[in-house]
Amino acid sequence: VQLVESGGGLVQAGGSLRLDCAASGLTSSAYAMAWFRQAPGREREFVTKITRTSGSKYYADSVKGRFTISRDNAKNTVSLQMNSLKPEDTAVYYCAARDRDYGSTYDYWGQGTQVTVSS
Q: Phi-psi bin for 64: left (phi > 0), alpha (psi -120 to 50), beta?
């Protein structure tokens, strides 16, 4: 199983970025998929997830209304559209997957992609 993130980069505050997570070795539609992020000196934190059964979406309060998670079953990818970016969104963003909708852990992780938002 491999999850590969792409789309990170440097953007000015107020700008947008789209991150993609390409899955191989699993069918992403059969997995709950999530995005986490980790800023320097901070613990990794939950950003958003989409469930495998109903496709329900959940967001951290800090990104609600600005970020959108989506799934493309044909491409076996999960994406994160990030709008109205703030400097505090700067972090390494990770894609994660698990074969159940609820729980405290994820089974698979990508290597991460850097997002830097300048003020």
A: beta
